[in-house]
Amino acid sequence: RLPVDRVFSMKGFGTVVTGTSTSGRLRVGDTAVIYPSIIKTKVRGLQVHNHDVEEILPGQRTAINLQSLERGLIQRGDVVSTPDAMLASYMVDVHLELLSSAPRPVKNRAKVRFHTGTAEHLATVVLLDRDELKPGDHAFVQLRFDTPLAVLRGDRYVVRSYSPIRTIGGGTVLHPQPARHKGRAKAQMAQALPVLLHGQEADIILWHVERAGEAGVSEQELQIRANVFGKPFERILQPFVSQRKIILYDKENRRLLHPTVFEALQQTLLTALHDYHGRFALKAGMPKEELAAQLPQQVDNKLYNFILQHLSQVGTIAQEREWIRLATHRIDLGKDQQAIRQKIEKAFQEGGLQPPFFREVAPSLPGTAAQQQEVLQWMLSQSILVKVKEDLYFHASVLAELQTRLIAFLKAQGEISTAQFKDLTQASRKYTIPLLEYFDTQKVTIRVGDTRRLRDSKAGVQ
């Protein structure tokens, strides 16, 4: 990481930047990134005290020749580093110490000049737990900027008064890309930030995972926020994951979640299922998409499926196609519902291949319209009735018997026309056409011109 203090162009070389390397290593040919603009380039050449070198180390006064980078795209105060090493941000959380020699207190939302590395930015001071910071005192504050900057936890900084320009304090960067603190959250954050100032690296990593909440955090983002990279980061993270102090819910994208958040999300789903079963006792379960809508918007699809998989594995829920239910949920028809069910079943059994439309059956049924629909949906979920088209239902046993006769006919004759199917069913056209289309969708038959033929899968052909 090298804060840029000079930028110039050299004929035959292109853009050159100079500065003092503060951390890490950089070699000729490496990909480099200019922060906070996030512009990628390559290292064409390196010099330390006017001598060409292949690699630079921390503390060395360095000149870097950057490949194919226009002079106007980089300026003093920018940082040259490796890919995925920093983040651009308009806010930072810091610990601020105001010098006892400061001429006056710093009030909430005061303007100051923020200096770190070689950069200077105008900042607004947002005090988290007080209205003003007195000379000689210190506090946790959020600094907000009009232009982006790139810093890491642990970076030191100096603040100067806006006017007249005078050094009034400084401190340590704690969080390089925080959320905007407002309302009661400001005081809560002031209580939480000491961990980032005094805590060990393991404590800081856990802190960031917990604060990421339902959105989770990727390993890459976490390394930048905690300023712990590579093998030291892995040595801390792996025991946490194995002990389930951190949940790795997305192995592909390496996304992490705090276990307290994981437990809270599980409870949200279980509560939603319990309430749903109470309102719709005869439904097999809650639609998967509807259940997902009960979670906060930050929860991505992979986390949702991870939670469902976990709850299924521990036997708390059951999944049946696109329906989710509590494992303890059982459908028991009450006396009134049994009466509705019996009348519905009788009507469709007697109707055979020319059943009534449900709207014709409903007036003769006991109970309310809502109760009738509830029982109807339950009968469909139990495969007692089969929906062929809107408001047209058949008893499952009637369809099964017709399918057997249809397959036998097609095996013998090879194909069947609409007229022949009408003779087979002895039903009117308003039933035969939906039935033919139903057997097509069930992959029993396939339409060829004006006739139907048996699909191989149903004919037993290998």
Summary of the model, kept short:
With 462 residues, the chain is an alpha+beta fold. It is elongated.
Walkthrough of the structure:
The chain is of the alpha+beta class. The chain folds into six domains: 2-81, Translation factors (Elongation Factor Tu (Ef-tu), domain 3, Beta Barrel), CATH 2.40.30; 89-183, Translation factors (Elongation Factor Tu (Ef-tu), domain 3), CATH 2.40.30.10; 199-257, Winged helix-like DNA-binding domain superfamily/Winged helix DNA-binding domain (Arc Repressor Mutant, subunit A); 260-326, Winged helix-like DNA-binding domain superfamily/Winged helix DNA-binding domain (Arc Repressor Mutant, subunit A), CATH 1.10.10.10; 335-393, Arc Repressor Mutant, subunit A; 397-459, Arc Repressor Mutant, subunit A (Orthogonal Bundle), CATH 1.10.10.10. It contains 15 helices and 28 strands. Strands 1-2-8-5-4-9 form a six-stranded antiparallel beta barrel. Strand 1 and strand 2 (14-20) form a beta hairpin. Helix 9 (335-351) packs across helix 11. It starts with a strand and ends with a helix. The model is unreliable at 457-462 (pLDDT under 50).
